[in-house]
Amino acid sequence: MVKEANDLTVSNQISTGDDASRTKGQLAPWRSPLSRALHRNRALAYARYGQLATVRADGRPANRTVVFRGFLDQPDGLDWNGLKFICDRRSAKVAELEANPWAELCWYFPKTREQFRLAGKVAIALDGQDTLGPVRQQTWEAISANAQTSFYWPEPGQPRAEQAAFERQEQPVEANQSSLPPDDFVLLVLQPLEVDHLELRGEPQNRWRYSQTEERAWQSLEVNP
């Protein structure tokens, strides 16, 4: 099951930049600075951690740290420029995103002192019988055995279970062997529709905003920090 992200209507107050992406298969203009930040911070394991904010059923915000699992492009012939994350189906974020798919990722890179805020809708891959099914399978096979094991633990957020409950989980297959992910393994794909990039170095600091139109063209605008 996949819940698809829809396009965001962008205010016409932002002028179209020369680097707007209109051609199918072309990367969004914010991908280059984000990829560069990932590369320059690659020695820091925690540089792949970002904070994903969702909306609770009562309208209050919910925020948690997630691990970036790579980019996803053109799973259905469209230009997603998606960011992959994984989570447990039993966690609160899945229900929150099913009710309201809007989310925002705040991602800080300490070495280069820059921040990205990526807002959009999140597609949820719950099983292998949909467009993102093969990507979900590939993502499952790419994570470590320890990470796989955690999806067989007792339900997250419930009262602490006995230690034995964490030791009776199924064991994942050996490395380099394929296995079907458990039902509780969920792939999340954030499809950014607005991106805010701030460089804290410099005097003054540098900041850019990127937004996508209904025609899937990207617009960029340099703004005051």
Structure characteristics:
225 residues; disordered N terminus; globular; 15% helix
At CATH level 2, the architecture is Roll
What is the helix fraction of residues, given as a range? Answer: 10-25%
**Main beta sheet, described?**
9 strands, antiparallel
Q: What number is the mean pLDDT?
A: 86
Structural class: alpha+beta
Distance between the termini: 40 Å
- Radius of gyration using CA atoms only: 19 Å
Instruction: Let me know the CATH homologous superfamily.
Output: Electron Transport, Fmn-binding Protein, Chain A
In the CATH hierarchy, what is the class? Mainly Beta
- The helix/strand order is HEEEEHEEHHEEE
Backbone shape: globular
Number of domains: 1
Enumerate how many helices there are, as a single number. Answer: 4
Poorly predicted ranges (pLDDT <50, ≥5 residues)?
Answer: 2-24
Question: How many individual β-strands?
Answer: 9
Strand content: 25-35%
- CATH topology assignment: Pnp Oxidase, Chain A
Folded structure, characterized:
It is a single chain. Strands 1, 2, 3, 4, 5, 6, 7, 8 and 9 form a 9-stranded antiparallel β-sheet that branches. The protein has a single domain, classed as Electron Transport, Fmn-binding Protein, Chain A (Pnp Oxidase, Chain A), CATH 2.30.110. It has helices spanning 31-40, 92-99, 133-142, 145-149, and strands at 49-55, 61-67, 71-72, 82-88, 102-109, 114-125, 185-199, 206-212, 218-223. A hairpin with a 5-residue loop joins strand 8 (206-212) and strand 9. It is an alpha+beta fold and 225 residues long.
